[in-house]
Design brief:
- The complex is a heterodimer of chains A (about 120) and B (about 110).
- Chain A contains no helices and 11 strands.
- With about 120 residues, chain A is mainly beta.
- Chain A is globular, with a radius of gyration of 14 Å.
- Chain B is mostly beta strands.
- Chain B is about 0% helix and about 50% strand.
- The chains are: A mainly beta (about 120), B mainly beta (about 110).
- At the A-B interface, strand 5 and strand 10 of A face strand 6 and strand 10 of B.
């Protein structure tokens, strides 16, 4: 258990409204990621963070912003949600062994977002 | 750029059948390779991994061998169970280390 909690787990919203998804981790991991999962596309990286206030874009970052003001929380914001952003969103952290960053990712349970 | 291609699904097998899910990759340098499993309504869980050529990852009866000469990391299990029904993802962590690349997933259904 990597101590990752996503909230909310389910959300239905309307087009044009802002939405924020939260990822919370309890083990002080440096690297955190946001992915979206859609049928036929697998997982696609939206944004990632390599430390407090350090973030970078992934392959599908348009329409999304992120913030990381403290180590344990990584927020994903849809400023104005669109129907194409209906998806399941997964947060992940990079594994560590002592002070060494290992290769694997550990995932949260996911947040299912429906934009009507 | 780096990428992963995995076998299209869905795959349906009878209980105790042999499973192979093919995965090939394109990468510069020496990536690490992974198989993840996703059960309905859950997040992805790491199933096994291999970090260098000829390494064999294994877990819960599943195995995969990192083959550099064929750029492959095929997932195998000798005798599947109904509880193995899930979606399986092949993934690689590239040489630059901070990006992961996932295949599109292969859905497996095991029938009694």
């Amino acid at each position: 258990d990597a101590g990752i909690t996503q909230s909310p787990r389910h959300k239905v919203t309307e087009t044009g409204t802002p939405v924020t998804l939260r990822c919370h981790q309890t083990e002080n991991h440096r690297y955190m990621y946001w992915y979206r999962q859609d049928p036929g596309h697998g997982l696609r990286l939206i944004h990632y963070s390599y430390g407090v206030k350090d973030t970078d874009k992934g392959e599908v970052s348009d329409g999304y912003s992120v913030s990381r003001s403290k180590t344990e929380d990584f927020l994903l914001t849809l400023e104005s949600a669109t129907s194409s952003q209906t998806s399941v969103y997964f947060c992940a952290i990079r594994g560590t062994s002592g002070t060494r960053i290992t290769g694997e990712l550990f995932f949260g349970e996911g947040s299912r977002l429906t934009v009507l | 750029g780096d990428s992963v291609t995995q076998m299209e699904g869905p795959v349906t097998l009878s209980e105790e059948a042999f499973l192979t899910i093919n995965c090939t990759y394109t990468a510069t340098g020496y990536p690490s390779l992974f198989w993840y499993v996703q059960y309905p309504g859950e997040g992805l869980q790491l199933l096994l991994k291999a970090t260098k050529a000829d390494d064999k990852g294994s877990n819960k009866g599943f195995e995969a061998t990192y083959r550099k000469e064929t750029t492959s990391f095929h997932l195998e299990k000798g005798s599947v169970q109904v509880s193995d029904s899930a979606v399986y993802f092949c993934a690689l962590s590239g040489f630059t280390g901070n990006q992961f690349y996932f295949g599109t997933g292969t859905s497996l259904t095991v029938i009694p």
